[in-house]
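Bench log, entry 3. Co-assembly request; chain sequences pasted below exactly as received.
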Amino acid sequence: MLEFILKKAEGPAAPRLGELRLPRGVVQTPVFMPVGTLGTVKAMTPEEVQELGAGLILSNIYHLYLRPGVEAVAALGGLHKFMNWPGSILTDSGGYQIFSLAPLRKITEEGVTFRSHLDGSSHFLTPEKVVALQQAIGADISVCLDECPGFPAPEAEVRRAADLTLKWARRCLAARGEAANSLFAVVQGGMLPELRREQAQAFRELPFDGYCLGGLSVGEDKDTTLAILEVTTPELPEDKPRYLMGVGTPEDLVEGVARGVDMFDCVLPTRNARNGMAFTAAGKVVIKNAAYARDPGPLEEACGCYTCRRYSRAYLRHLFLSREILAYRLLTLHNLYYYLHLMMDMRQAVAAGRFAAFRRDFYEKRIEGGNTRG
Amino acid sequence: MLEFILKKAEGPAAPRLGELRLPRGVVQTPVFMPVGTLGTVKAMTPEEVQELGAGLILSNIYHLYLRPGVEAVAALGGLHKFMNWPGSILTDSGGYQIFSLAPLRKITEEGVTFRSHLDGSSHFLTPEKVVALQQAIGADISVCLDECPGFPAPEAEVRRAADLTLKWARRCLAARGEAANSLFAVVQGGMLPELRREQAQAFRELPFDGYCLGGLSVGEDKDTTLAILEVTTPELPEDKPRYLMGVGTPEDLVEGVARGVDMFDCVLPTRNARNGMAFTAAGKVVIKNAAYARDPGPLEEACGCYTCRRYSRAYLRHLFLSREILAYRLLTLHNLYYYLHLMMDMRQAVAAGRFAAFRRDFYEKRIEGGNTRG
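Structure output for the full assembly:
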């Protein structure tokens, strides 16, 4: 079971500092969770992820359910043993994936019927089953099945999806039983501030271990995302963690922390690495650029990661253009290091009461070095 | 400069034990050199290759010449610094690649004109230039430009190519100057035992640091390869290393050592790993096989590699079917471990005077467990 210790909060929608006490270790918040959709943080070994400082990763029950199958993972001792990960795991319910990946989905109050994006096979999942699946693979933190409406969507559709998500969340709570793992709810409500507020108020009455903010960064502009965040977080229980799902860029992490978010995940650091893009304090580095052909410097001068201490931009460019696996490894290592150190820096800034100065400095560095390199 | 210490030789075409003393370390022979064609042993970091026990890797001047370019590598401090490899490097001349990869090649006595397999650009290389290129990137051991005839090929063609290779080798010797790196010749001669013998006799009069056996395992049957080996090695200087280029399977390594070969390279352990095939003492494991879907055991029960000590066949199968980069990494680690430990076992067997027993045992294990798993 999860224990969340809120160590500091600067306000209802302001930076917070906390601790997630999980059976497999303590995780400091705000935290970024590297994404290991299919039981592997892409291109990394578990040891590498751990050495980067991550203690909590994200996986996805929708993906694992389809491949290799929950029964197989359970028969092999659960997800931790299967992938040899000694830290903690949060599994997303797959709500977002069912609505974004699966063709021919059909939603009823009872649950959702969908076809696999892998082989077209038909499946039916209910809130209860999704809780059971996550328990079966031994997730430390489970997430309720939710319906993520498209964007843009008619108001009636957004309201219906939010109400169904709330009903399903109540069923997930009832279904969890005496299981030792934790259960997070997903708050939906589209881009309607009033609905988001109502939903948060309804959810706060239910004894969840944490609250996810779903259905954001789905195509809306940044100001809308932040406005929704600002109306939602003040309505959530102060003593429970808040997790902004699938968001986002370094800027998004800074703005999320600024508005009281405790947990983040996103595929950007790992996916962009495989596309040849590195995150640095000054902005992005697109490694295939001809300017790097003979550049002996590291991706980022001040960076202490394995990649920056050993390899030149010229070598990384060569590996990437040659489609060498080592390119994806080295860029992934750097990007995860960047994301995890950004979170560490933010925790230190909040602890020292200088988050505002940190945030100013963060943007100044980007303006100076600039995204011009991209 | 290379010093080769022959510590033991059981006969002119029989197992040998030696030591290659190179500026960056001592390498025990018989040795297998992992292949790092483009300045990376595919899917591995240099640290991983070193931890596996490799002190000498192979790279290829043809590939590096085309991408990223020899001038770039030299400007960045040479190949060792470029790829961050602390051990020794042997570069193949690219003779084989020019004749197998490049379209529209044209050979004259002066050199070879060819088009790049990457972008169709036209290039002209001479024996002198190939020596200079390898020196420019700082290869510890360079290889003379050779002409590798096709297979099958008319006898006149094979003879012409062998003679040209010999002439070019003399020019390479003259071109090496006072360079500190070593230079190996390539002995050609197709599948003509008499020609191979003559060529070896001509080469042995020339002061090379080692002798490559080229143009083998190019389509001929195994018995032919071995017969050619058996007539060639007795004609080569006993006190110089013999390197069988691009060969081969675990069986090929055992039979090569049995016939007095000191050095090997082959893409099989790394390439087959990326195709989902693992080498084990019992035979090959094709990891995608359905039989492994819930197999909790390692690739190989007795194996001490990183992969076998941590991951199940079921997990490896899942990663491979999901095309996860970690699959290629873990299988590559295992296969290189298998190859390097096979060589270590052979060195121990030769040292203890029990190579015949080792060889018998090697085949018995394969018959028992069998290639039937594949």
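Chain A has a mean pLDDT of 95. Chain A has two domains: 3-266, 273-373.
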